[in-house]
Design a protein that fits this description.
Layout lengths: L1 E4 L2 E4 L5 E3 L2 E5 L2 E6 L10 E4 L4 E2 L11 E9 L2 E10 L3 E9 L8 H15 L4 E3 L14 H8 L18 H13 L6
């Protein structure tokens, strides 16, 4: 089993709540969510979250969270899509992708405009484009994404960024290797 502790746990059991409960996983299943017991079982691995947020069952969070799947089409062909997550006052462009086809139609800009309209409809006061390259260096693999997001204006805030907590190191290593070889960020 893997133990996630010293964090904040977002649960959806009886409405949305954030607790200091621990989360234990056994394989790909959640084994326990609750306070730290007096006696702990043996764990294969323990991850100190350092106050970070964990969302058990995140793969199905769309059923519970303020999330929209926004798409951009031309002639019934999908050209771009994104996940938009909304909280009390902020909408966040969490993940997105676009096709290389018909880029001259600028589907990613249409997508962002629709996401901003959705955010306004849901009373969000802020729109967060989420992540950019750590520096505006044209040689960085994410420089194109940086330029795209910079084109919308706004302010740049530096935060710690995203962290992966792999449940299966071997599968995670395969995923990372595939990611590094794929077209996209690392072309």
């Amino acid at each position: 089993m893997i133990r996630f502790f010293n964090g904040r746990t977002l649960t959806m059991a009886d409405g949305v709540s954030v607790t200091t409960d621990e989360v234990w996983t056994d394989g790909d299943k959640i084994a326990y969510i609750g306070p730290t017991p007096e006696t702990l079982p043996a764990f294969e691995r323990q991850i100190d979250l350092g106050g970070d947020l964990v969302m058990p069952g995140f793969k199905n969070a769309h059923a519970h969270a303020g999330m929209s799947f926004v798409r951009s089409y031309a002639d019934d062909v999908p050209l771009a899509a994104m996940f938009l997550v909304m909280s009390a006052h902020r909408a966040t462009y969490l993940y997105g992708a676009s096709s290389s086809e018909k880029r001259n139609l600028m589907p990613t800009y249409a997508l962002q405009w629709e996401a901003i309209r959705t955010a306004k409809t849901n009373s969000c006061a802020e729109y967060d484009l989420f992540g950019v390259a750590p520096c505006p260096d044209p040689s960085h693999p994410m420089y194109g994404l940086y330029k795209f997001k910079q084109g919308f204006g706004g302010e740049l805030f530096r935060q710690m960024g995203c962290w992966d907590y792999p449940l299966n190191e071997e599968r995670y290593d395969v995923l990372r290797a595939c990611e590094m070889r794929s077209k996209g960020y690392y072309r």
